[in-house]
Hints:
This protein is of the alpha/beta class. The chain folds into two domains: about 10-115, Resolvase, N-terminal catalytic domain (Rossmann fold, 3-Layer(aba) Sandwich), CATH 3.40.50.1390; about 150-195. It is about 50% helix and about 10% strand. It contains eight helices and four strands, in the order βαβαβααβαααα. It has helices at about 20-30, 50-55, 70, 75-85, 105-140, 150-160, 165-175, 175-185, and strands at about 10-15, 35-40, 60-65, 90-95. Strands 2-1-3-4 form a four-stranded parallel beta sheet, with helices on both faces. α6 runs antiparallel to α7. The termini are far apart. About 20% of the residues are buried. The mean pLDDT is about 85.
Amino acid sequence: MTGHKGQVVGYVRVSAADQNEARQVEALGPVDKLFSEKVSGKNAHDRVQLQEMLAYVRDGDKVRVKSLDRLARSTTDLLALIERLKGKGVALEFVDNPAINSDTPQGKFMLTVLAAIAQLERKTIRERQAEGIAIAKRDGKYEKAPKLGLDKIAEARERIDAGVPKALVARDLGVSRQTLYAALNGSGRYAAMAGI
């Protein structure tokens, strides 16, 4: 694909609340190709234009976005997108945040700092979850979700009624016999499901 190398590709995202993309488009200046998204974009996979832009760009291109929040919804999301673009040899430029442009030494440093912060956030969240579970277990409030859903319990009943041994049914469902008995009797954590 000759003539593609070195294109400036614009990406614009307007939220449901603000459907006017003109300000962002104007801020980007001249671009060779523009991808424009009109969604809330809580997660990158729902953003069709973003996915198309990521598939379109090639080595030597530069993606230009007005600001960080137009491209990503979280630090983790931003870093994943930057890594993906970097892997394709594509630079990233933020009109409102030039200090974070991926093709400058300052930008690379800022992104390293952001990556460290994101890693710390994830570690802190995991620690909080583990502490919360430990406290709930200590206080007797931690209940894992039942291993068998209503459909599996119904399937187990049918098989047992047809003469299949309970031990075999339990093994096929990947649960202990005690779990199967509790599910069939509506006891323990299956009490809430009894009579549904």
